[in-house]
Each structure stands twice: as structure tokens, then as C-alpha cells.
Amino acid sequence: MRLPRRTPWANLNELDQVCGWIYSDAADIKSRQAALNRLCAWKANTAIPHALDITISLISVILDDARIESQSTASSSNLFSLRQAYALAIVRLVNNLVDPLQQGAFARSITAIASQIGLPAWFVELRHQATHEDLPSLAVLREAAKEALAWLLRHYFIPTIHPMQPANIEPSISLPPFGPLIQEYKALMKLQIGDSSLISRQQDDLNRILRNVERWISEVNLAFGRSPSLDIQGIGGEDADDWDETLALDYLCEKLVVKGVLLRVPKKHDVLLELHLPSNRAIWSPLLAYIYANHEGLPSRLVNRLISVLTDPAFDESHAVLAAGWILWISQAWAELPGCTAEDIVQALLGAMGKLESPKSDDSAIAILLVKAVASNNPILAAKADTLLDTMFNAITPITPEVDAPDLTVKEMARRLDLLSAKSAPRITAEVDAMDVVARTQPQCGSDVLDVIAPGWTLMNPQTWEPCAMGVYYHGSAA
């Protein structure tokens, strides 16, 4: 369960109030100063999203500009310092929004990232000019600060104060096709497996393909959200980054766990219901290892995707066998990673089988074999898994009612009563005979005689027994 996240504001009304102070009237210096004071207090108390940090920089320089402009004479040094402050605010704006998205192993173009998060391209050009060339003019910088505040209002304050429903888990922009890229990798690996002398000569080609795969993952990561640094719920930072990467890895696993990639095309001599390691692991294990080196969440997401294929009735049995083989491989290759231990995989498999509408041992035969194989090296886990499987598929049997139960008549019930009475009659008669013997030897059945016969409940002599109210003391004993 995700732990509660700390926010600078007690509720969204406080953020709404700050937003009103900033954008209600650009000429209201007092309101913007109040907004700046509140934002600085939040920053001193806890971490704030990048958007609010950028807002502090922009408002600070705008207020300084207003104070200098209100003076009758402004020196050239003050104006140059003002240009530097504006330029620094714009540089921080671009860097704080773009740098968190440089998550891959290779650097990406700032212009490309800016275009995908909706940041105006001229902000990037202005950053480049302020960093490597002469400072832009004061008029251009003022206009850039004004546009930057408007961009933050549209892309941060409004979505945070008035959050929309979560978007569908699909990329928000078009992506380069993944099929040709993965087919090129597959063809190259087949050549290297067939002829080991090609490995050194084709290493550059392999590295190029792996870089393209990593670049594709970065594009997907960016496409699933507006920006990890501008979380739509108002919380920036690592939580948003992790969520976007999780969605990207899930999307990647959907592309990998298909026929022709991890799930190779079945062959005629394949034996169903036989669990073994995937025969194409030599092709795909280098790619998986490369992706895992840059994205540690891949193994657990891949296990989840393979289990969904294994337990989904929409996939045929051949796909289930191949998916089970890859899960078995992961349980051995990444046995110590979170979500890939034997306990985690067995728990996930049993949970997936338990969610089926009508689990049957025949339909889940491959999953049962996989559970036993994964737990085979842990006797305690294997015993627990066997117990749960037995409970799930064998122990729960429907109760078959008696055929004549609804049609029982008084005559039938009397017959059954006679049978029960016949079974218990000899014991009762023997007890009565024993009491007769005692009654003949002892005319008065006092409490001392009853204690000698047997402690606790005893059977009274029918000749001497008289009815009385419960609790009445009769002949030395309580009735």
C-alpha cells in the first residue's frame, strides 16, 4: 500500500487562494507579494513540486522589476541585473521541466522533450541564447516571464486544483513502431547464435538497436503523462516518475509477450502440458538484461503480464505453456528480485487462479504444474502450495442432498424412529434391570445409595419415582 504523501498545503483551497493572488490582477503587487510569501513558507517547510519552485523564481523577478520601474531613475547596473534574473528564471523553467525526463541511458534532445510536454519551443531557444550567447533584451524576457506564468496556470494550477478523471492507460501521443525494431533485433541475434564469429563484428549494430529500444521506452515513458515533474494531482517528484515508468513498462511487456517475440510460434513436435525453460531464451535474455539494467521494475511487471496470459482463457494452451516457461526462467534468473521470488510468484499464481469464475483443475493444469515447479526448492512453500491447491480444486465438493428428503412422510419418519429406538432399546433395558436389582436390595433409594451406584445422573426406579417440581428436595436428593 502506498504511504500517504506530504503536501505543502493543508487542502486545495490554500493552493487555490495562492493561484488567485498570482493571476487575479497582474498589477496587484500586494497580492503577488502575499503569494510569494506563502510559497516561500511552503518551501521552507517541505519539498514542493518543480512548478511551484519555478513560480517562486518568476514572481520574485517580476516583483523586483516592478520596484525598479517605480523608481524615478534606474541605473544600467540594475537593469542588467534584472535581465540576468529574468534569464535565470527562464533557464530554471526549462531545466526543471526537461531534466527529470532524461531517464534513459542516452541523452535526448531538449527540444523534443519540450515539444512533447507542450512547452513552447521559443522557451528552449531563449534558454540557449541566455546560456551560450548574449542575454536577450529586457522586453523579450518580460514577455517570456508572462508567458511562462500563463503556461504554468494551464498545465499545473488548473489541473491540480480541478483534477480530471484518470486518463486511459494508453500513450497520449503517437509513438514510433516497436515491431520493426524488435524484428531487427531478433534477426541479428539469430545470426549471432548461428555463427559466433559474427558477435564481435556485429556488436556495434547490436548496441545501436539496444539504444533505439531504450529511446523507445523513454518516448513511451514521456507519452503516458504530461510530465513526471508536473503531477496532475499536485505532487511532483519520485512518485509521479515511478508511476509513469510503471505504465511504460507495462506497455513494453504487452509488446514483448506476444506470438513471435517471447511467445515463439508453436511447433508441431511441441508437447503440451510439459513445463520447460523457453527454447528462445538465448535470443531474448540479452535484451531483457539490458532493459533491466536501466529499469529495475521490469522483472515484476513482466511476471504480472505473463501470469495474466497464463490464466486468461482467451489465450490458447500453447501460449500458456510458453508463458509458464518464461515465468520459470524468471524465477531462476531473477530469484532474489522483488516480485520474482518463489513466494511472490506462487502467491501471484494462486491469486490469479482464485479470481477465475469457475476454477477447474483441467483448465489450470499448466498453472498447477508451474506452482509446483517454482516451489519445488522450498519444502515449506511446496507444502503450503499443495494445501491451497487441494483446497481450491479438490476439497470443495458439492453436497448431494438425499433423493427422498423433500418427500418424507409421517410414515417414513415413524419407520426411522422405530429403527433408532431398536438400536437404543437393549441399553435402556439393561439399565432398568440393574436398577431393579438395586431396588430389591435397598428398599429406600437414599442419596448414599445413589452415590455408591454412580456419581452424577442416575435412572430412578419406576416403582418409587414420583413427579415433582424441578428443584424440589425429594427423599434426600434434589429431583
Q: Please, could you describe this protein's structure?
A:
The protein is mainly alpha-helical and 479 residues long. It folds into 3 domains: 12-161, no CATH class; 179-395; 406-478, no CATH class. It has 19 helices and 2 strands. The longest helix has 32 residues, at 410-441. The chain is flat and about 130 Å long. 28% of the residues are buried.
Q: What is the average per-residue confidence, as pLDDT, rounded to a whole number? A: 76
Residue stretches low in confidence (pLDDT < 50, at least 5 long) are 165-172, 226-240, 395-406, 427-432, 441-454
Strand order of the largest sheet: 1-2
- Helix tally? 19
Please tell me how large the radius of gyration is. Answer: 40 Å
Strand content: under 5%
How many distinct folded domains?
3
Q: How would you sum up the major sheet? A: 2 strands, antiparallel
Summarize the structure.
The chain is an all-alpha fold.
How are the secondary structure elements laid out?
Blueprint: H1 12-23, H2 29-45, H3 50-70, H4 76-98, H5 110-116, H6 121-132, H7 138-161, H8 179-194, H9 198-201, H10 203-223, H11 238-256, H12 281-294, H13 298-310, H14 317-333, H15 342-354, H16 365-374, H17 379-395, H18 410-441, H19 447-453, E1 473-474, E2 477-478
Antiparallel strand pairs: 1-2
Characteristics:
two-stranded antiparallel sheet, 2 strands, 19 helices, mainly alpha, flat, 1% strand, 479 residues, 3 domains
